[in-house]
Amino acid sequence: MLIGDVARQSGVSARMLRHYDSLGLVRPTGRTDAGYREYSSEDIRRIFHIESLRSLGLSLREVGRALDDPGFTPSELVDDLIRQTRERIADETELLTRLRRIGAAEPAGWKDVLQIVALLQALGSKSAGTRQRAALSSVEEVPVPVEALVEAALSETDPNVAGALRWALAQWGDGGLALLAEGLGSPVAEVRKRAVQSIAEIPNGEATALLQDALANPDIVVRRYAALALGARGVADAVPTLIDMVVEETNDVDAADALSALASRPAVADQIATRLVDCLADGTVESSARRRLTQALADIPGITTSRALADLSHDEDRAVALTAAYILGIRNAR
């Protein structure tokens, strides 16, 4: 078969077939009387083999090795091709994400595009100072797409930069809440923690609703951060978790402060006092935890608390009794 016929049948151009010949990949078996290349069926089969291997991303040199080296083992080469392909996909995905973010910012002109690109690059800088400045300027100058801020906030390890990113997200209001809510379900514990911390700084009803849902999160760290934030917002749903924090001595001072803030409403104050007393009566609670629970009663107003302190001043645990008597004395002196 002549070169033109082979090109039509295989889909490989005559020019490429000549290139294969010059490289020694496919040399036609024969020549016509006029000196034209004449390909055998075996030559054509080899051409199809070459095209198949090229479709996997192999270079012509690698194709030659694969076809001609009897000791060639493809596994290592295939593994390398898989790695290269994954890297290429990751690079293309990153580019696509960046383009989408630029588009979402609706730049008015190329100057805005360049500023957005610069801010996105700064958010990914190795320098914490550069990332922090980018976070602070992301709202005041050309706005960075909220998706980029959320991604940065959920991955940031530097506390100062993280604080700046949470501030920037708070300026968006509920703009990033849906993405932050997804972060609460991340398989990575640190991401879940950063998500709830970011939600806690957004002062609106939708954020409060997310924090209330977070009280049932399987991650105890998420539940604790949600409870502290809800306590500051006056949401009584946080009371059980806050009391657990006092018992477990985990941010117990902050938890006690949150309980005190919640107790400004009489109905909630009685609820808190009752729960604290119930915990104190639990025989499985350790002595140190009972002292902390007693101390937490100090800032809870109401008759329920006063009666509990009077009873506790005669508690078998001397430390608890002394703490209760001291608190009761201060309350009576007011």
Describe the protein.
InterPro entries: ARM-like, ARM-type_fold, DNA-bd_dom_put_sf, MerR-type_HTH_dom, MerR_fam, PBS_lyase_HEAT. One of its GO terms (molecular function) is DNA binding. Pfam families: HEAT_2 (PF13646), MerR_1 (PF13411). The chain is an all-alpha fold and 334 residues long. It has 19 helices and two strands. The chain folds into three domains: 70 residues, Multidrug-efflux Transporter Regulator, Chain: A, Domain 2; 95 residues, no CATH class; 101 residues. Helix 3 packs across helix 4 and helix 16 packs parallel to helix 18. The mean pLDDT is 88.
Short description:
By secondary structure, the protein is mostly helical. The protein is 71% helix and 1% strand.
Task: Reconstruct the topology from this structure.
Blueprint: H1 3-10, H2 14-23, E1 30-31, E2 37-38, H3 41-55, H4 60-68, H5 74-104, H6 110-123, H7 128-140, H8 146-155, H9 159-171, H10 177-183, H11 189-200, H12 205-214, H13 220-232, H14 239-248, H15 252-262, H16 266-281, H17 287-296, H18 303-312, H19 318-333
Antiparallel strand pairs: 1-2
Helix pairs in contact: 3-4, 6-7, 7-9, 8-9, 9-11, 10-11, 11-13, 12-13, 13-14, 13-15, 14-15, 14-16, 14-17, 16-17, 16-18, 17-19, 18-19
